# Entry
Amino acid sequence: MTQRIDSIDSLRALAMTMVIAQHCELLPFGWTGVWLFYVISGFVISRNLIAEKATFKPASLFHYLSFVIRRIFRIVPPYAAYIIICLLVIRLLGYSEQYRELPYLATFTYNWRMIFSVEPQFSAFGHLWTISVEQQFYVLFPILILLVNRDRAIFGLIAICLLVPFLRNVMAWQMAAHGWDAARIAFGVYASSFGQFDAFALGALLAYFEPAIRCHPQFATKSAWLALVMATVYVATYIGVNIRFGAHGIDAIRNIASGVLYGQKREVFVYIVMNFCAAATLAGAIAGWRVFNLIEHPLLVAVGQASYGGYLLHAIVLLVMGEAIGSLFEFQAVQSRIVFFLVAWCCTVAIAWLSYITWERKLIRYGHKVSQRIMLRANGRPVGVSV
# Structure
């Protein structure tokens, strides 16, 4: 097991907070927190796989099984519990037609269901497409890490980073050719798994180069400057595009980093920029930038450890609060939305942390024990021996 990095847990907490803030109509670019989650996931998963591959003899099938066991014990129980909660709410609110979403939720294909369906979705299910994207990546990705050597794996990850933006362009073109409107095309690219695998791949590349980043922290600094330049060029370019198409005043900065984007190749480039910004931030955490000392407070680290449950739960918390005190959310005043956000955030974190410490953490530890036993047996060692 590799050593946990506190600042990465803090980044998870911030990513979750960004998503909740957007859903409370406070942070238009809060959706980028999901892409930060993606990059972190790619890094953490790859880091563990690389360490395990170095510890045990080559046994790719057992490595893969070990990985799957860990993921099942981490992802599935809270996910299943959340869906059960949603089913109870659906029953109470009389949304029985939403039961037909269950096969897609259960098979982690919900993102494709949302892309190809024009039917209204239950709001508390709406964010679960991101879990489907992660699981689809996890099915394919470990094969690259476990079956090939380091150089070929790095080459494959770089190829993913280069090819996926091209794939986004092809997807958008095909959707437009089939008569989809701009909003549907934008969401189709946004929620597609294959169109976002470059985020995970960047995180995985950071895992391979983690020792180099720690020895040469200037790499992280240069990455941050590159991300800043990319973001500046992207924003300036699309401000110019907006003005060219007749935008004036505040309209000149619309549809650049807020919302689901399509048009003038935004759906291709916005994710490149967001992924590099997230990767540069993560590289800074790996390099131990002093700024991360500000967010490594034990409370924030604890929130990050329970952030998966928090991400799952926040939608149902917002739904219940909206049903109970919906009039608060109808006010246009920012102060009302801030109050709504703070209450929702505190409720979400409290429930998620309670869930994490009472049963999720135990299941995670058990999953690791089962995983370790599989690898020990695969290498002909006694199960009781620690490594």
In short: Residues 6-378 form one domain. The chain has one domain: 6-378. The chain has 15 helices and no strands. The longest helix spans residues 334-378.
